[in-house]
Amino acid sequence: MVELQRAADPTANLELMTETVKAMLEGETDLIAALANVSAVLNSYLPDINWVGFYLLKGTELVLGPFQGKPACTRIGEGKGVCGRAALDQKPLIVADVHRFPGHIACDSASVSEIVIPLFKGGRVFGVLDVDSPHPNRFTDLEADYLSRAGTLIGNFLETTSITEVIHEHHTF
Q1: DSSP helix, strand, coil percent of the chain (3-state; round to 5)
Q2: pLDDT, tens digit, 9 for 90 and up, residues 35-94
Q3: Is 12 buried (19+), middle (13-18) or exposed (0-12) by CB count in 10 A?
Q4: pLDDT digits (tens, 9 = 90+) for 9-45
Q5: Left if phi > 0, otherwise alpha if psi is -120 to 50, otherwise beta: which for 119?
């Protein structure tokens, strides 16, 4: 079992978060178990958030995966909302105020800002990491960098395990 320890310094806390994600993935072979624990880790390390989780690409849709928070949208169409846009553009997306984002999909009315990190396997998008906050302008470029590092760890995990049941070969993003 991995012990969660938070640091007062934001950068040190993000370093600990990334190391804890790495530790949670080591030795695991099940995608759902791994992503469930990673979402719990991120929920523990990221202050002032109300939702954190994963959407996995299945065909032309992002489908809800493991998460922490209130019930969420189950399916997101290609290029739709913040998650779909980040997957389509294949780059992190920080939205200071989701109510000003064209096509925003409101899953939790309390969410005001959002960060989405595309996740890659073999150079192709296989899903996204989505984090919401009830506060405007909550997310920083520093957090985007560390969450991208966590995403890279997840991609490396997928490359070194034989997970196929959730990852489908038909990608459109």
Answers
A1: 35, 25, 40
A2: 999 999 999 999 999 999 999 999 999 999 999 999 999 999 988 999 999 999 999 999
A3: exposed
A4: 889 999 999 999 999 999 998 999 999 999 999 999 9
A5: beta
Pull the structure tokens for residue 106: 């409101």
Buried b (16+ CB within 10 A) or exposed e, 131-149: bbbebeebbeeebbebbbb
Tokens of 128: 């996204």
Q: What is the separation, in whole angstroms, between the first and last Cα of the chain?
A: 36
With vertex at residue 143, the alpha carbon angle to CA 167 and CA 150, rounded to the nearest 5 degrees, is 35
